[in-house]
Amino acid sequence: MKNAITEMKSLDIYVNSLSVKQYEEIKGSLVSDNRARVNMLSFDIHLQNYNFLCEESSLQQDIFSLQNLAKKFTWKSNIEQILSKNSFEALILTDIDRNILWVNDGFSKMTGYPKNYAIRKTPNFLQGNATSDTVRSRIRKKLALGNPFKEVIINHKKDKTQYKCEIHIFPLKDNDEVTHFLALERQIA
To answer: What gap in Å lies between CA 135 and CA 133, rounded to an integer?
Structure first.
């Protein structure tokens, strides 16, 4: 049975790589083993559920980390609501001077930089020649206003590849005074 499953996986990978025309030409010669098909379908369902659980666990870990920081800095913002109502890949927390204090695991996945590399730097290290000075200036002005905002900027990964990054910045306040910024970031096409 183990060889049959291995053969089915290999066949599945091969068939998925075919064009529709190529598949139509060979589909009559494919032999179906319903037992292996049921096992593969069950595995697919399990894998989808596993990926969902991993993403949910990662979100809960991010919420937990930021809620602990919220207690320390006495922010009034609802961190859980911010994270659950907005899409993001990476989270960056900075102080009022834009020095990075914390990033999530998604930051490393998106940028290629290790988490500890980003700490105590400003997000400027992600910018390069393709980053617009106009957009940088607009971001600085919006930060000074102290309101949430979205912007799109060209950033650079560790391997120097450029990517369009949508940032959604939330000022975090203590007694109506902005003390930190939380950036929710995601790569866009």
So the answer is: 5
